[in-house]
Structures are given as structure tokens and as C-alpha cells.
Amino acid sequence: MTTSSAPGKVYLFGEHAVVYGEPAVPCAIARRARVTVERRDDDQRRVQARDLTLDGFTVTWGGESDSRPDVDVPTPLVEAAMGYIDGAIEQALDAAGEVGVGFDVTVESDIPLGAGLGSSAAVVVAGIDAAARELGVGLEAETIADRAYRVEYDVQDGQASRADTFCSAMGGAVRVQGDDCRRIDDVPTLPFVVGYDGNTGDTGKLVAGVRKLKQTYGFAADTVESIGDIVRSGEIALNEGDVEEIGRLMNFNHGLLSALGVSARSLDAMVWAAREANALGAKLTGSGGGGCIVALDRTEQTHTALEYTPGCENAFRAELDTDGVRRER
Ligand code: PMV
User: Fold this and answer.
1) CATH 3.30.70.890 residue ranges in the chain?
2) Fold that domain 192-317 belongs to in CATH
3) How far apart are CA 150 and CA 311, in angstroms?
4) DSSP 3-state assignment of 186?
5) Which of 36, 130, 133, 202 has the fewest CB atoms within 10 Å around its CB?
6) Is 157 helix (H, G, I), strand (E, B) or coil?
7) 215: part of which helix (H) or strand (E)?
8) Domain 2-184: CATH class, spelled out
9) How much is the pTM?
10) 57 CA distance to ligand 1 centroid (A)?
11) Percentage helix, strand, coil, to 5, in the chain?
């Protein structure tokens, strides 16, 4: 039996624009998904998931590729979750040169599902590492990131960048532009506060919406480029340790994401609550439509303000996690 964990992330800058070749800077946070894998004697796959915002569920399905999981919770999120876990197992089998091996898989996660915190990437990264080790193969973090990207790409119908999967596998703050992925060293302390509205955004739909807007309106194409400019300025501010400037740039980034139509009333309400509480900056994180915002605040004020903001279901501080994928057992 093997257990691996991998962190979720917030986007400091650049979501959506990264899909069109602009850079993005996601940062791993100390909230993890843990995946435990045990090889079975048959070719069945049995998955138990807990704490994934949803109530726990158990799914068993057979080895034939055309068999559908018998899911007792009729939600697309569960189907997506199964796709990620199945994809992770396929990648591990491929890395080990094996076929038709069954597994018992248990997923435990502190990361709200589908809320812009990279829960699916964390599950896939941890799942690949745990399943590969169960098959006797140790993979480098970069290789796991690449294989996890292929899973996300498939499950999300090609609407995925490498940002989430690379960040979760490597940990820390990273820079992703197309296929060029690297870690950013020596980042200043980033006092993240996360606000969560309890909702989920449909990443595929939101990405498709931005693509359509960009094809229809010149302003939207310009906005995507402007987000790229903000990311480049953000990298300079990160390098100089200028956290105040990083906060200002996050505010600009949120305004541009709103212009692209991916914010939501609840996200705007949390962003404004953070700003009025004197946060250094605040923005939605991830695909938007609902889910989480991330603010920077060294004081307790934003955390407190978010707790009293209608529509904010949960607010928490999040440390940057410099560890990526981790072997737990
Ligand atoms: O909502 P998340 O955490 O899946 O992030 C999506 C980020 C996008 O830039 C909108 C898409 C992507 O794959 O980069």
C-alpha cells in the first residue's frame, strides 16, 4: 500500500490568459489531497473519496474500458473526479509497462472540489505517484507533472494549461508559459487569505466563454494580453520582494478577469470585502464563475471581514507550500 499527497494552489496572476500563451504564476498552498493505492488481485478498480466537499462516495468499476462506473451520486463533479483518478492510474500503468492491474484507491482531500484551488490536479499528481510506486516505479516530479497534465488535458477536452499540474507536482511559486514551466526561487512571504463561496465553476465552459469573447471582440483579445503584462510586472515585483506592488497588480488582474466575464457576484463581494479590510490585493483564483478568491493581508482583518461577508462560506489563511508531491507511505 502506498500513499502520496500533493498540494492545491492559488493563482497569484494569469489564469485564463495562460490558455493563450501568456505566462501565469500559480503558488502551491498547504492544503493537500492524499491518495492511497493498493494493488488488487483482480482487474477491478474501487475508489473511495472523502472530504471532497461532496459527501463521501464509493465507486467500483470493472476492467473493461467500456464499463461505466456505477455512481450513486449523480453529479458531473463525481464523473469528472472518476475521470481524473482513472487517468492517473492509466498513467502509472503506462509508466510501469503494465496493463489490467486492479487497485483500491482512497482519496482524502482538504481542497474544496472545483473551486479554483487545483483539487483535480492535486488528486491526479498524488494518484500517479502513489500508483506508480505501488507498481514499483519511482517517477521524478517533472515526469509526474507532465503525465498529470496529459490526464487533465483529456478530462477537460483539451482546455487545460500546465499551470495546475506543474505547480502541484513541484510546489512553491511557479511560472508557466505554454510548455515552459519553472519554479520561482526566493519569493517573499505571501500572506494568503482564501475566501470560498461554496460554489463551483465549470472550467470547460468558462474557458470556452473566454475563447468566444476573444474571437468576437478585440477588447477581449487585448484584455488577455494585458493580463500577460500584469503577470510580467508581477514577476518583477516578486523578484524585488515588493508585496504591496504584488497586491496592486492582483487587483488589476481581478478587474480584467471581470471584464472577461468570469467573475461572479459572490466572488466580487469577497474581493471587495477584502479590499475594504485593507488587504494589499484580492482577486478570484482559477477559472472563476464561483469558488474562491485569494487576498494578501498580513493582518487578521481580511480573514475577519470574509467571515462576515454574506456568500462567503469559509475563509482561511493559506501558507505557501514549498513541497510538491510528497511520499507519505
Ligand atoms: O479553476 P482551476 O483551478 O481548474 O483553474 C483553471 C485555470 C484556467 O487558466 C482557467 C485553465 C487552465 O487550465 O489553465
Assistant:
1) 192-317
2) Alpha-Beta Plaits (3.30.70)
3) 35
4) coil
5) 202
6) coil
7) helix 203-216
8) alpha beta
9) 0.92
10) 25
11) 40, 25, 35
Is the CB–ligand 1 distance for residue 287 below 6 Å? Answer: yes
**Could you say which of 110, 164, 297, 321 is catalytic?**
164
- Residue 285 · residue 10 · CB < 8 Å: yes
- Tens of pLDDT along the chain (329 residues) come to 999 999 999 999 999 999 999 999 999 999 999 999 999 999 998 888 765 444 445 565 544 444 444 444 445 656 777 889 999 999 999 999 999 999 999 999 889 888 889 999 999 999 999 999 999 999 999 999 999 999 999 988 777 889 999 999 999 999 999 999 999 999 999 999 999 999 988 888 999 999 999 999 999 999 999 999 999 999 999 999 999 999 999 999 999 999 999 999 999 999 999 999 999 999 999 999 999 999 999 999 999 999 999 999 999 999 999 999 999 99
Q: Ligand 1 centroid vs 116 CA: distance in angstroms?
A: 7
